[in-house]
Amino acid sequence: MQLPQIKIGQLVPKFPIIQGGMAVRVSTAPLAAAVANAGGIGVIGATGMDPEELRMEIRQAREQSSGIIGVNIMFAARNFATLVRTALEEKIDVVFSGAGFSRDIFGWGREAGVPVVSIVSSGKLAAIAEKHGAAAVVAEGTEAGGHLGTRRSLCEILPEIRKRVKIPVIAAGGIVDGFGVARMLKLGADGVQMATRFVLSKECAVAEAFKEMYLKARPEDVILVESPVGMPGRALRNEFVEQLLNGSQARPERCRNCLKVCSGKYCIMDALENSRTGKVDKGLVFCGQNVAKVKEILPVKEIFKRIVEEVASVD
Questions:
Q1: What is the pTM of this model?
Q2: Which of the chain's termini has less CB crowding within 10 Å, N or C?
Q3: 150 vs 142: CA distance, rounded Å
Q4: In the record, which residues are listed under signal peptide (predicted)?
Q5: Which residues contact 118 (CB under 8 A, 6 or more apart)?
Q6: Contact at 8 Å (CB) between 284 and 225?
Q7: What is the pLDDT of residue 257?
Q8: What is the pLDDT, as a whole number, of residue 228?
Q9: With b meaning 16 or more CB within 10 Å and e meaning fewer, what string describes 297-307?
């Protein structure tokens, strides 16, 4: 099997591989630029950044790559609109958005000449996104890491979404190698989004302790937890998660006022920042369902090479 070509608006990457934009500084300029240089679409996770930080990340990525650079911005973030407008001012190539649904973003994208891609988990929402002007949709199943919009498998929702829209459909959730990519292409995907695999790249800037948790993960370590965002999240079992499960987690002493709606049970930004910086027992280590299948830290260029070879080996 050969990798197909995908077109998102006027963007045509060499490979139909999008790096998931992981929030709170997991997906930053060095990773996004490396993916873009390898022929995919590199994505900066904007949620958790202030506008000026995002502006500098985009500029840094541009300095390191002439490839396609996008941003991922959660609708649930209170500064959602400001971050989107900042990215558009910086002439970002493409905007991805999930964790809720914005109708306004499509108008903003049209005004700036920037394609908008909606992250969806049902055929109904995919059709609504297409109607409002989405250039493509990411079909994200329950196998994905981080905040989840469904408990349904990607293999179940992908064909449903494929039938409802004519725009490109990008499969996301649990894809960690070329064999997974090939499986999604056979189910009707035009491309794939991969996040967990790129955490275990040399260019991902998370702490070594974070990467070590990924490398040591067993399938039974991957569980669902409740997030203050109001959605379940997929993460690795650790001391912080155990406290969440038994109800002993202390409520936050301060509020960053970062979400439109928050349960206040714990600070999601603190939890994600702690894990990213290496305090993994004091934070959430988000990951995809198949993290245990990834056992090497490789340069992004090598990850792409292996994916292409694995896809080519499938009939």
A1: 0.94
A2: C
A3: 6
A4: none
A5: 96, 97, 98, 101, 125, 126, 129, 134, 137, 138
A6: yes
A7: 67
A8: 76
A9: bbebeebbeeb
| pLDDT at 76 (0 to 100) | 78
The residue assigned the tokens 């022929």 is 39
Domains, the chain: 17-204+296-312 (3.20.20.70), 208-291 (no CATH)
Query: Tell me, what's the pLDDT at 248?
Result: 75
Rounded to whole angstroms, the Cα distance separating 285 from 212 reads: 11
Query: Cα–Cα distance between 155 and 176 in angstroms, integer?
Result: 15
Dihedral angle of Cα 283, 287, 293, 299, to the nearest 10 degrees? -90
The side-by-side arrangement of strands in the sheet containing 232-236 is: 146-147, 232-236, 222-226
Residues contacting 291, CB < 8 A, separation 6+: 145, 176, 196, 214, 217, 222, 236
